[in-house]
Amino acid sequence: MADLGIKTGDKVLLVWTQPSAPAALKQFAEDVGAMVGADGKVSVENMERLSLSSHTSSTFDWVLSCLLADSSSIHSSETLAEIARLLKPGGKIILEEPVTGADAQSVRTAEKLMSALKLSGFMSVTEVSKAELSPEALSSLRAATGYQGNTLSRVRISASKPNFEVGSSSQLKLSFGKKTPKPAEKPALDPNTVKMWTLSANDMDDDDVDLLDSDALLDEDDLKKPDAASLKAPTCGEGAGKKKKACKNCTCGLAEELEEEGKGKQKTNMPKSACGSCYLGDAFRCASCPYLGMPAFKPGEKIMLDNTTLTDA
Questions:
Q1: What is the C-alpha to C-alpha distance for residues 300 and 238, in angstroms, rounded to an integer?
Q2: At residue 17, what are phi and psi to the nearest 5 degrees?
Q3: What share of the chain is helix, strand, coil (3-state, %, to 5)?
Q4: What is the chain's alpha carbon radius of gyration, rounded to the nearest angstrom?
Q5: 11 forms bridges with which residues in the sheet?
Q6: Is the separation of the CB atoms in 52 and 82 below 8 Å?
Q7: Which residues face 129 on adjacent strands?
Q8: 253: left (phi over 0), alpha (psi -120 to 50) or beta
Q9: Which regions in the chain score pLDDT beneath 50?
Q10: Sign of CA dihedral 130, 156, 160, 31
Q11: Residue 296 in contact with residue 278, Cβ under 8 Å?
């Protein structure tokens, strides 16, 4: 017991399972209680009812599971997860479990037990010792699991909970992106070069500075308004036997001209009303009006009559 590392004031949880003798369990709890002293605490829970206990998270410094010589049980993933919840950050667990030398359906190897502890969130998983099973523990295990092999042994493993709470998070500083290179320093400019390209207010009155008027660069031909026909491409809208068509991205105005012509043709093709009141509604229509029974419409709007209406008319 002294080699476990339990100190005065620690809170310890003892997990037991059948067929542990009550006298042995009581003696074991008293020995642990003597190690933690009056400031410590020792709680005893059955493995099958561990998830039903009322202990809050991060309560115990130590969890000792199935350390009695006459008990043996398989620690399920749910049991290991519950133990991880009850342990304080940095708390330790010491457990004993029967293992086999070869893979079996009901009993696992020591390597798989250590892997299960790691998957449950424990770290620093270490095999402390290995010994033979007692006859009582062997018979209890065979009755519970149905395992009939002869390669069983009892292994003791220690592990610890990380120094953070279950479910806690922390921001990580990652540097996977490419580092932006520092811009190269600009070369120093020659003061004489800077002075050459600088025009100050004093230079405006200097007789040696020749300033050009932008209007003086334009002659009379440049000021004349260009003819629209001269802006058209030589082959724009022309072609023997071809329909008049504007160029792509037309800028000479032919596209707008053709669009206006198209709108004019659409207006001339619109049906004309004999009385001029068809669009107002049935109250203003003749008895033979083909628009009878149809809603009013805007003047010039083209109305499509279905075959049934035409047949009735």
A1: 33
A2: -150, 165
A3: 35, 15, 50
A4: 49
A5: 41
A6: no
A7: 156
A8: left
A9: 240
A10: negative
A11: no
Which residues lie closer than 8 Å to 242 by C-beta, 6 or more apart? none
Contact between 136 and 190 under an 8 Å Cβ cutoff? The reply is no
CB 94 within 8 A of CB 64: yes
3-state secondary structure of 23: helix
Angle at 158 between CA 153 and CA 162, to 5 degrees: 145
Map 35-49 to HEC letters: HHCCCCEEEEEEHHH
SS (H, E, C) 153-166: EEEEEEEECCCCCC
pLDDT in tens, 148-195: 767 788 899 999 999 888 777 878 877 766 667 777 777 777 777 766
Structure tokens at 178: 């490419």
Q: What is the pLDDT of residue 3?
A: 72
Task: Output the pLDDT for position 232.
Answer: 66
> What is the per-residue pLDDT for 257?
83
Length of the chain: 313
Taking only the tens place, the pLDDT of each residue in 44-85 is: 999 888 988 889 999 999 999 988 877 778 899 999 999 999
C-alpha distances out from residue 179 to 175, 184, 186, 189, 289, Å: 8, 15, 21, 29, 81
Q: CB under 8 Å, gap of 24 or more: what pairs does 232-240 form?
A: none
12: tokens are: 């310890």
**Model pLDDT, residue 240:** 46
> CB–CB of 87/57 below 8 Å?
no
